[in-house]
Amino acid sequence: MTSLSGGSDHGGSTTEPHPLVCACCGTPADGPQPTTWTCSVENGVRQFLCDTCSRENLRAIEGRLDSSWW
């Protein structure tokens, strides 16, 4: 996976908004985070997956959840 915004995560800084980009396929979001996209934090970096990549990788995403989720 690649960086989601083409730079480092500034922890929600609003000084320079970066376009949201899918970490898997690179598809740009239309505006702010769409409700159909998936957000995860990997190695301290927030990453987003578009709805298509989220569906295609659902088993891998579920496999990383703690057993307490089930």
TrEMBL record:
Domain of life the protein comes from: Bacteria
Protein name (Swiss-Prot/TrEMBL): Uncharacterized protein
